[in-house]
Amino acid sequence: MGELGFFALIHLALVVYALIQIFGSSADTMSKILWVLLVGLFPLFGLIIWFFAGPGTPKK
Description:
Layout: H1 3-23, H2 29-41, H3 43-53
Helix pairs in contact: 1-2, 1-3, 2-3
């Protein structure tokens, strides 16, 4: 696996982590859908925006 494959694997892991955090958050359903679309349609920028302004705190 070359460098590109390594970075793709890291990116995939970050996207999966973000999706798990989004679905587990206390945000309402519409917010979760919008966050998933943002992360899915704009993978790099979506992750950066999600990291700084995520959908909320985890459910307890």
